[in-house]
Amino acid sequence: MAKNCHNDYKMKFTGDEEFPDLSLHNNHMAKVLTKDIYNKLRGKSTPSGVTLDDIIQTGVDNPGHPFIMTVGCVAGDEESYEVFKDLLDPIISDRHGGYKPTDKHSTDLNFENLKGGDDLDPAYVLSSRVRTGRSIKGFTLPPHNSRGERRGVEKLSIEALATLTGEFKGKYYPLNGMSDKEQDQLINDHFLFDKPVSPLLTCAGMARDWPDGRGIWHNESKTFLVWVNEEDHLRVIAMQQGGNMKEVFRRFCTGLLKIEETFKKHNHGFMWNEHLGYVLTCPSNLGTGLRGGVHVKLPKLSTHAKFEEILTRLRLQKRGTGGVDTASVGGVFDISNADRLGSSEVAQVQLVVDGVKLMVAMEKKLEKGESIDDMMPAQK
Amino acid sequence: MASSFTRILAGRNPAVLLAGLGAGTAAVGFLLSESGALSAESKRSLYPPSADFPDLRKHNNCMAAALTPAIYAKLRDRVTPHNWTLDQSIQTGVDNPGHPFIKTVGCVAGDEESYEVFAELLDPIIKDRHNGYDPKTMKHPTDLDASKISNAVFDEKYVLSSRVRTGRSIRGLSLPPACSRSERREVERVVVTALGGLKGELSGRYYSLGDMTDSEQQQLIDDHFLFDKPISPLLTCAFMARDWPDARGIWHNNEKNFLIWINEEDHTRVISMEKGGNMKRVFERFCSGLKQVEQLIHERGWEFMWNERLGYILTCPSNLGTGLRAGVHVRLPNLSKDTRFSKMLDNLRLQKRGTGGVDTAATGDTFDISNNDRLGKSEVELVQMLVDGVNYLIECEKKLEKGQDIKVPSPVTQFKK
């Protein structure tokens, strides 16, 4: 155990006395955590001092919802995934379709491997977006980091982003100190992220010291955007109006790889390993951390009896146009890949491109009053 | 940057290097250990206190006013016997900059020892908040002899209800911001067992927040007894809502005039209340109940946190001393419209709140009027001040009703500074 571990005092009490009451809970952590696992792991700590109670607090405080299965735990640093693997491996397996501790994850950020994606009908596909997260090696993660570390991440990020040129040339706006005018513009552009209000995040300690060390960077054409120190060290987003997902993915991959070069030069590359891919704060974002999606008009298809089944077979998920936890407006849905771990970036975006193309074709058929039964896809 | 440091780096102790480089953020690239992991020890040298000092430029709370880089540097790496740190104490004040008009405290204690280990920060905060009370030189008087109170039965035409509350902490267990689940459960066990020994008009029962039935819950809501999971960021940022509702509950006597909250913002909050104006009886029950509970926990080898510098030790420094808020809901339709009302309250050392409690607005002409002070005066003194003050306000109200004029009273004397 690391010296001066804040857990030492708690070890005077027994595991039974400390075990959380999870009787009303429905999240991955509550399903996996047994007294045996708790007893085995409660005395451990990562080198930076992250302990079991730190990573599960959010799942204890947020019992969950009968229909929505949240993860219920977060990583405090890169080593959390190793030190607490007895808890996290089964959670990862549950969340990521049976992914085994021995499985290897493939990373593919070569945008040229994507087939098509430049011909989604803009009459239906209103906008296209790809996002991911990146964690910077040598710093602990948002649930655990100190102010000094968070500022260190910010400083390095500003330096890295300042090296970008051409289509990626842009500017950083620290959350603390932006002018009202800048703030309004960022809100109008739908770029500004706000202090988290979701208890899933606040109970995990991610809103501490807000807005210290937080900010938004974007390029001049507003098609490439980076969030610094929100739920992850970095969230990287490429987006534009219309259906040219190919172009969005090209910009995404190119920009990401350029940023990564700069971090590597400072001996602070991205957290990555061949088992878990990119290491992020929430276990649900491991692997690619990628959510590629479109805002698409599907008023008829979305009310069809087989809509959910189509999405499942295509390995896609729907959300409202406000993002996670929102409802759809006017038949417009956010459709994105459901998977993160066990398949590459290219593969996941390919599913979105192919799946959305099919669904638009189905929508057109339904508009004409025709059946879509012969278009049903096989399970991907 | 890289080239000028690589020469220095070869063969030198990273911790020494870092100290020489000054503010930690300049050198973040160079302290990865073999595995790339950031250990807790290297973190301390990698990030000297100056790298972690919070940005308090927009803040208006007692902590932000008192915390200097020098104090932070001295205290940052200290740990109390319950593993509680300065950063944890001040987190709520960093996260909640405050309000231009309302000065919050901005820090909490994680355990009894916090008030010693972090005295360099907490003593000035206590002085600021408690009218110059100096914990280094002064002693706080405790007096729970209700027989000393006089003139404490108010005219019920004006006073609708009377209430006295305080808090008590169980010595040896961490406070709500810091406590582990087992400590919190232990507080619940100790207190509920003790309350089970209360007899006569104080005998009652316990309702655990997690186990109560829907109809019990509704009854407690109707009685205005039920407390809910804190939503105020002042409390949630101080880690007080963790593991909700584990080990939280409400105990009340069968008469429903003596009530105890368990594991909300403090280990216990003790409340005596009644409809009407008999503050004398409310305070008598308050003192008697407190004494009996204390006796019952003593029998099992426990005691309340108390010392002669700070009186009763509670989570928020604003509640030290007596932790006592004695108040009434009082109708003052004429007086409340008088421009001198606020000044009168100030001089009487009283505060007004809406009838929903702190942070609410008054409904109609009815106000919650209570004592401002907590530390440096005893319970008896504070309740008598409240009683005298409320009597004065009622006299003023009656005068205004008859069209007579009123006088602003001279300020009540403070303790010797």
UniProtKB/TrEMBL annotation, chain A:
- Signal peptide limits: none
Note whether Methyltransferase occurs among the keywords. Answer: no
InterPro entries xrefs: ATP-guanido_PTrfase, ATP-guanido_PTrfase_AS, ATP-guanido_PTrfase_cat, ATP-guanido_PTrfase_N, ATP-guanido_PTrfase_N_sf, Gln_synth/guanido_kin_cat_dom
Q: Per the record's keyword annotation, is ATP-binding included, yes or no?
A: yes
Superkingdom of the source species: Eukaryota
Q: Which CDD domains match?
A: creatine_kinase_like
Top EC class per UniProt? transferase
Q: Where does ATP bind?
A: 127-131, 190, 235, 291-295, 319-324
Gene Ontology biological process terms from the UniProt entry? phosphocreatine biosynthetic process
Which Enzyme Commission number(s) are on file for it? 2.7.3.2
Q: Where is the Phosphagen kinase C-terminal domain?
A: 124-366
Q: Which GO terms describe its cellular component?
A: extracellular space
Q: GO molecular-function annotation terms?
A: ATP binding; creatine kinase activity
Which keywords belong to this entry?
A: ATP-binding, Kinase, Nucleotide-binding, Transferase
**PROSITE patterns assigned:** PHOSPHAGEN_KINASE (PS00112), PHOSPHAGEN_KINASE_C (PS51510), PHOSPHAGEN_KINASE_N (PS51509)
Question: Domain Phosphagen kinase N-terminal spans what residues?
Answer: 10-97
Family recorded in the similarity comment: Belongs to the ATP:guanido phosphotransferase family.
Question: What protein is this chain from?
Answer: creatine kinase
Q: Which organism is it from?
A: Muraenolepis orangiensis (Patagonian moray cod)
Automatic annotation (TrEMBL), chain B:
Could you tell me the EC number(s) of this protein? 2.7.3.2
Give start and end of each Phosphagen kinase N-terminal domain.
45-131
Give the GO molecular function terms.
ATP binding; creatine kinase activity
Choose any GO biological process term that the UniProt entry carries and state it.
Answer: phosphocreatine biosynthetic process
Q: Top EC class per UniProt?
A: transferase
Q: Which residues bind ATP?
A: 161-165, 224, 269, 325-329, 353-358
GO cellular component terms, semicolon-separated: mitochondrial inner membrane
Per UniProt, residues of the Phosphagen kinase C-terminal domain are: 158-400
Enumerate the UniProt keywords alphabetically.
ATP-binding, Kinase, Membrane, Mitochondrion, Mitochondrion inner membrane, Nucleotide-binding, Transferase, Transit peptide
**Topological category with respect to the lipid bilayer:** Peripheral membrane protein
Subcellular location, in the record's words? Answer: Mitochondrion inner membrane
Q: Which family does it belong to?
A: Belongs to the ATP:guanido phosphotransferase family.
Functional note: Reversibly catalyzes the transfer of phosphate between ATP and various phosphogens (e.g. creatine phosphate). Creatine kinase isoenzymes play a central role in energy transduction in tissues with large, fluctuating energy demands, such as skeletal muscle, heart, brain and spermatozoa.
UniProt name for this protein:
Creatine kinase S-type, mitochondrial
Write down the species. Muraenolepis orangiensis (Patagonian moray cod)
